[in-house]
């Protein structure tokens, strides 16, 4: 689990790193100010960020908003000596809120929350074939599969495109292809799976690829050459 920890107090930062290491977290990046944290966060995909709330130049709440704009799927855990920030912390997309001094027990509970959330998402997707659980910032979406226009690969996650927005799922394209198996979806490119029922029109472009447009949205997806050939065959079989 790639982890970012941010605290302007060196002793607090050192304590948090030690406890996380004791709990089996080894891939840790530490920063003692929000500016450095944003720079590090922009370089790599972090699974979780532990943020101190009270810091100079930028609060942990403000920092959380910035980080979630960069990667909406990062779990945010706040730590602070002040209990009165709890409501604001959860409104800012925090999954948990830890009061200082931080203990092994509080870190264990936070990590268990992350594990439980991930398991619940996976369980919901397997049990309810009509829904995909996705996330954008602090919002969690229960998306009807029929409302999905396409799925796009994005490094170690995927983007789910619906009419109103984009949302994110911590899965690989192969996982999504398996999840959508038996539905009217087709992988036209290594980076795209399209909902055939949402297609408005297609046209051939260079190298026999297909340019695909959709009903009610302006997005266009271009297939690969092999994907176009296989998709044409798929369409022909369905129309026989």
Describe the structure.
The protein has 240 residues and is of the alpha/beta class. It has 2 domains: 3-121, Rossmann fold; 128-239, LytTr DNA-binding domain (OB fold (Dihydrolipoamide Acetyltransferase, E2P)). It has 7 helices and 15 strands. The protein has a 5-stranded parallel sheet, sandwiched between helices. It has a 5-stranded antiparallel sheet with strand order 10-9-8-12-11. It starts with a strand and ends with a helix. The mean pLDDT is 86.
Mean pLDDT: 86
CATH class of the largest domain: Alpha Beta
Low-pLDDT windows of residues: none
* Main sheet summary: 5 strands, parallel
Shape: elongated
Count the strands? 15
The helix/strand class is alpha/beta
CATH architecture of the largest domain: 3-Layer(aba) Sandwich
Number of helices: 7
> Separation of termini?
49 Å
Write the layout of secondary structure elements.
Layout: E1 3-6, H1 10-22, E2 28-31, H2 34-43, E3 48-52, H3 60-70, E4 75-80, H4 86-91, E5 94-99, H5 104-127, E6 131-136, E7 139-144, E8 150-154, E9 157-161, E10 166-169, H6 173-179, E11 185-189, E12 192-195, E13 199-204, E14 210-214, E15 220-222, H7 225-239
Parallel strand pairs: 1-2, 1-3, 3-4, 4-5
Antiparallel strand pairs: 6-7, 8-9, 8-12, 9-10, 11-12, 13-14, 14-15
Helix pairs in contact: 2-3
């Amino acid at each position: 689990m790639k982890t970012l920890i941010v605290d302007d107090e060196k002793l607090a930062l050192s304590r948090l790193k030690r406890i996380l290491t004791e709990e089996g977290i080894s891939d840790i990046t530490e920063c003692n100010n929000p500016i450095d944290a944003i720079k590090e966060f922009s370089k790599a995909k972090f699974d979780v960020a532990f943020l101190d709330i009270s810091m100079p130049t930028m609060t942990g709440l403000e920092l959380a908003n910035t980080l979630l704009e960069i990667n909406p799927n990062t779990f945010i855990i706040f730590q602070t000596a002040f209990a009165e920030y709890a409501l604001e912390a959860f409104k800012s997309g925090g999954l948990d809120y830890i009061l200082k001094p931080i203990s092994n027990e509080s870190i264990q509970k936070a990590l268990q929350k992350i594990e439980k959330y991930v398991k619940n998402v996976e369980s919901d997707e397997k049990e309810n074939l009509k829904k995909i659980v996705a996330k954008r910032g602090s919002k969690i979406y229960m998306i009807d599969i029929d409302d999905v226009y396409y799925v796009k690969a994005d490094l170690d996650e995927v983007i789910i495109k619906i009419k109103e927005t984009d949302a994110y799922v911590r899965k690989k394209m192969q996982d999504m292809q398996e999840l959508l198996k038996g539905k009217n979806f087709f992988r036209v490119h290594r980076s795209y799976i399209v909902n055939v029922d949402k297609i408005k029109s297609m046209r051939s472009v260079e190298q026999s690829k297909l340019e695909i447009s959709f009903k009610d949205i302006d997005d266009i997806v271009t297939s690969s050459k092999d994907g176009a050939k296989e998709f044409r065959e798929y369409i022909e079989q369905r129309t026989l």
